[in-house]
């Protein structure tokens, strides 16, 4: 199996982002987005997906968190797409159900070559730590758009932190399953993904 390691950069007037991803890692991370709660979510994502991930972002967080969260999602999705290469042998689909105290998140993914997002989560407050709760959905949509995946998320709970963390952990577990190489075919009747 070829190494599935990618290093990419994205620079705009709003953000300067560097990401290094190893799909076949051990859950090691070095995350600095300038947003502590977002760092925490990406660290959980890395640990529970068994990916190795380095993320460094210089973003316009003096404006707000939107561009940093969005652009990180866009670049991370691109990293996944490039690291997966021709997708020969991957499971393609994966799902996970993850509880966190009173919260429960169910995530299903399909690395289909088509982007689509379903996101149902009952956040009660505008902010979770230092990120706008609306930007959690926006991160997932941005990631799905550039990774060309279907991502379906359904979460419930009382505590916004718990709901969000369960989502990131469940997404990681689902992606761990979907990205694993277990055979030597492309799982599509079209012959391509």
From TrEMBL:
Keyword Kinase belongs to the record: no
Pfam family, one: IGPD
Pathway: Amino-acid biosynthesis; L-histidine biosynthesis; L-histidine from 5-phospho-alpha-D-ribose 1-diphosphate: step 6/9
Keywords: Amino-acid biosynthesis, Cytoplasm, Histidine biosynthesis, Lyase
EC class name: lyase
Catalytic activity: D-erythro-1-(imidazol-4-yl)glycerol 3-phosphate = 3-(imidazol-4-yl)-2-oxopropyl phosphate + H2O
GO cellular component terms, A-Z: cytoplasm
EC number: 4.2.1.19
Subcellular locations according to the entry: Cytoplasm
GO molecular function, one term: imidazoleglycerol-phosphate dehydratase activity
The UniProt record lists the keyword Cell membrane: no
One of the GO biological process terms: L-histidine biosynthetic process
PANTHER family the record matches: IMIDAZOLEGLYCEROL-PHOSPHATE DEHYDRATASE (PTHR23133:SF2), IMIDAZOLEGLYCEROL-PHOSPHATE DEHYDRATASE HIS7 (PTHR23133)
Family: Belongs to the imidazoleglycerol-phosphate dehydratase family.
Protein name: Imidazoleglycerol-phosphate dehydratase
Organism: Methanosphaera cuniculi
UniProt gene name: hisB
């Amino acid at each position: 199996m070829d190494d599935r390691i990618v290093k990419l950069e994205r620079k705009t007037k709003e953000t300067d982002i560097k990401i290094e991803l190893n799909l076949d890692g051990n859950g090691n991370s070095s995350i600095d987005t300038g947003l502590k709660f977002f760092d925490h979510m990406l660290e959980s994502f890395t640990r529970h997906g068994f990916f190795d991930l380095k993320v460094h972002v210089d973003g316009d967080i003096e404006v707000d968190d939107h561009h940093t969260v969005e652009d990180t999602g866009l670049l991370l999705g691109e990293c996944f797409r490039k690291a997966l290469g021709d997708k020969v042998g991957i499971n393609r689909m994966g799902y996970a159900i993850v509880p966190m105290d009173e919260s429960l998140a169910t995530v299903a993914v399909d690395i289909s070559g088509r982007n689509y997002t379903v996101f149902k989560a009952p956040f009660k407050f505008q902010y979770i730590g230092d990120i706008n709760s609306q930007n959690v959905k926006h991160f997932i949509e941005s990631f799905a758009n550039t990774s060309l995946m279907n991502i379906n998320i359904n979460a419930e709970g009382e505590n916004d932190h718990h709901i969000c963390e369960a989502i990131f952990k469940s997404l990681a577990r689902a992606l761990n399953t979907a990205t694993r190489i277990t055979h030597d075919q492309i799982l599509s009747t079209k012959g391509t993904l």
